[in-house]
Amino acid sequence: MIKMDYTIFYKTFKDIAKSDEQDVELKLLFQEFYWDLFISAYENTERVISIYKNVPANKKHWLIFSDYGYEIKSYPEGDIFNYETRKEDEFILSYLHKIDLDLSNERICIDITGFLRPYLIYLIRLLVAKKVKKLHIIYSEPIKYLAQEETKFSDEIVEEVRQVAGCGGIVNIDTANDLLIIGSGYEHTLIAKVAEFRNSSRKVQIYGLPSLQADMYQENILRASKASEAVGQMSMKGPDFYYAPANDPFVTAATIQRIVKRHSDFTNLYLSPLSTKAQTLGFCLYYVWECIDSNASIIMPFCHTYSKKTSEGLSRICIYDVELP
Amino acid sequence: MNIGNRNPFESTKALYFTDQEIEDFWVDFTDENNSGLKNLIEPSSPTPKFILGGKGSGKTHLMRYFSSPLQKIRRGGNLIKELDKEGYLGIYLSCSGLNADRFQGKGKDDDFWRTIFEHYMELYLSQLLLKTLDNLLANEHELLYGEKEICREIVALFDRPIEFRCSRLADIISFLNERQRSIDFVVNNIAINRSEKEVERLEIISTRGNLIFGIPQILSNIMTPFKNILFIYLIDEFENFTETQQKYINTLVREVKQPCSFRIGSRLYGLKTKNTYCDNEDLKAGSEYEKVLLDEHLRKLEKQYFMFAQKLCLKRLAQNDYIPRNCEINLEKFFMESNTIDILNQKAKGYEGKKRKYVVRLKDSLDKWYRAKGQESISAQKEIDDIVASLMVEGDLISEKLNILTFYSEWAKGEKDLLGCARKIHDNGEKFQKVTGEHFKGDMIAQLLRDFDKKQLYVGLRTLIEMSWGIPRNLLIILKEIYKWATFNGERPFKGEPITIDSQQKGVLEASSWFFEDARIFSGSDRTAIEDSITKLATLFRDIRYSDKPSECSLIAFSIDLSQISSEARRVIDLAEKWSLLVKIREGRKDKNSKQVMSLYQLNRMLAPLWDLPISRRGTINLSSELANSIFDPKFKGQFRAAAKDVVKKMIAPDFGKRIDKNGKDHPLQQTLPGLE
């Protein structure tokens, strides 16, 4: 495995005031950027729509995942790509086949805010295979989640837990010291499902701290603790818990690196990012830089349906300069 | 002695245990034939077995106990020389370790994945076997005489000659591992580039079963320690395989060759098919395999399970230094027991006789009844007072409740002379209380606790073990939660003072909630249907239990003619059983009218505290098809409230399901539902 120093990556954070001038602020923020291709996953929230509107790009694409259940009449304006399939590889491969671009020569920006995690993970993995070396990734933070710690991001009816396509590993038949690293978000049922799926693995959880908003850490802990029997943790303060900023993929990746180093005698490594998209990106970066074709894989729970709107407002934008191997 | 501070019941899953811990925490128990859990596995029997059990029933613990690493520990590290005494060699595989879900989709058809998966399993299981062998033979130089010949014979099992340097087992393991890894690589990369080039590089080098059965045959022929040894593939967590993948394993079971056998562990809901690739025939129970229902087996042996559970707790406490090892302690002393009567009598002091809620209800019912008959005079009021006074028993709440219950029963049958009835009960109190009390004492105590705003009591070790009902993990979770609450409440559990009733109550409720939530989480898209059904059923039981005149005592079970309900209702009942929320009582019950054998189900005891229900089953109710559909079929859920009300109102004074006119004549309020008496 390559050992990557994730501290070299640049990131820009910009707080956005809630005002009529929001569009102006966004335009000012983006004025030093220009992209050939901007990709966003449609979600009917202010943060996703206003970014799409103000981002400067030659081509802007909406990806509409059927998992959200949007009806055609509620589709946004713009270039839309939607496919019936709910398989992340089929969707993204169909999209890339349709646009037929040499991505390694495009200046790419992806807004990951509205992405469903498996699609995001697969897309990043595929960009590596397509020899894309650099891109920008945007993640926007809400003012708040609609129901605080009771916010439902999905119906939490898990249809299956499996590897994300393309993110499997070489299996070590010795499973005595398997390690599962979970990015623990609000959805305790998903955490429990993944933990049960990898029943015999040692589990380590990463919580988002600092959280996106001040009260979100407590909300996160309250929800995630409901999965404690499935996870089988000894103590909230024990070595099975780590913290990484909820909006920083690079520190998240570095944290995973630290965990793996501490448990270096693992037999198989499973990564399951179930928290913010920014942390999911961190899991993904760790995987593509250090785990491809090794005994590590990314596993996710796949739900029946996902919530169309879970948050309100736009409080901050994060722009990550991502480099890929 | 070092008094522990850890929660001794924290670790509730065998999968977390090291091999040594599996051995250390092993507890067996014997049934009346003096055979224990070993006989469930029957490691010397060549007949394959499917071992099914609910979550936490101990399948993994049981299967790992019979695996080679544990055999080695038990033989002091010298398994190879004592293998003949064992009679078998256990090769353990957890299906979840294969990540079998990846063998599907990605633009390839089912036939492709079937071929790849079968070959992968061949390589995987063979590696496990050979690694086990390699481990056994390490440092046993005198036994390595046959190694070269074994290697030669194994290579000959491949479908075509393969050239590679092979003089030691490690070489074959390495070769198989490289083949397995190349499949891993290709399977993963198909998702990225859909390239046929990589796929073409894959080569199937062995037909189904050649290595899995062939290698044990070779070992048996060549190496003395393996003669007459049964090679048992212990395949655990079978529910993680898809239907197609299970079909493949079923085929291996059918095609099993000496000296091999299988023990396959799965959750109750985990068997997706019995089909095989042998002309698509199903495996035949009895001749080709045996089925063991682990928790059903443990539930039947109540006395033995109680002893087993105590031993399990003792081991945990000893391992965590709460008590000395190998000491016999009466664990019940660590749990405060309730003296319900004292609690009730204490509480009753604040409620002088006639102000007790059940007395107030009785008076209200009598008042309504007399009014309906057109009698509102002072004499009616006096009669009510006399009735109430006749039924009261000074200083004995339970006898009082039993008197009132007897009175309600007579009243419901149509007794018109209520005062005469009450006086008769007063004069023959003891006799009536004995008869009624035999069946309804527990329910009357429950009603009293409720009336006095006290929680139902699920305390004492015996009760906790009963609640777990054959599932050791349930008991561990109950005790884990109780320990947490006791510690939170400032107590020192297992360090001398008994755990208080309050801590036990809270821990039990926590465990019950977890049990229900856990089943709901893991039932996927059926979650809502199962949750609603169980809630409705339990609510019905509760309403009956706390009615004026419960039709059945200690009610937590129902009988049903499954052929008369909708297919969706049957499916939901089946699911609820598979998730252990309902338990099917195998013996069934003959309907007294139709003489048909009805299916009998009981609500899992773990759920009882959530609805203040009893743990032990005595009476059952027969659900009509309409009521059953309204409970279990979402299509009919809107009818539940009316249907349940129709049942319960027969147990509520003063009407008991009838309307009384001014002439004192009874009229049914609504037609009785078919099948309900």
Write a structural description.
- The complex is a heterodimer of chains A (325) and B (677).
- Chain A has 325 residues and is an alpha/beta fold.
- Helices cover 29% and strands 26% of the residues of chain A.
- Chain A is built from nine helices and 15 strands.
- In chain A, strands 1-15-6-5-2-3-4 form a seven-stranded mixed β-sheet, sandwiched between helices.
- In chain A, β2, α2 and β3 (57-65) form a beta-alpha-beta unit.
- In chain A, α3 (88-99) crosses α4, α4 (117-129) packs parallel to α9 (277-290) and α8 packs across α9 (277-290).
- Chain A is globular, with a radius of gyration of 19 Å.
- Residues 234-238 of chain A have low confidence and may be disordered.
- Chain B contains 26 helices and eleven strands.
- Mean pLDDT of chain B is 87; it is low at 670-677.
- Chain B has helices at 19-24, 38-41, 59-65, 68-74, 83-86, 110-137, 147-155, 169-193, 196-201, 210-222, 243-254, 294-300, 302-319, 340-348, 357-372, 378-391, 397-413, 418-427, 429-451, 461-468, 472-488, 501-522, 527-545, 567-578, 625-632, 640-648, and strands at 49-53, 88-94, 230-236, 260-267, 290-293, 557-560, 582-590, 597-603, 621-622, 658-660, 666-668.
- Chain B is of the alpha/beta class.
- Chain B starts with 18 loop residues before the first helix and ends in a 9-residue tail after the last strand.
- The longest helix of chain B is centred in the first third of the chain and has 28 residues, at 110-137.
- Helices cover 49% and strands 9% of the residues of chain B.
- Chain B is elongated and about 110 Å long.
- The chains are: A alpha/beta (325), B alpha/beta (677).
- Chain A binds chain B through residues 87, 89-90, 93, 122, 125-126, 129, 156-163, 165-171, 173-175, 178, 189, 192-193, 196-200, 226, 229-230, 232, 234, 268, 293, 297, 299, 304, and chain B through 10-13, 15-16, 94, 96-99, 101-102, 105-107, 124, 127-128, 131, 177, 180-181, 184-185, 187-189, 191-194, 237, 240, 477, 514, 517-518, 521-522, 524-525, 527.
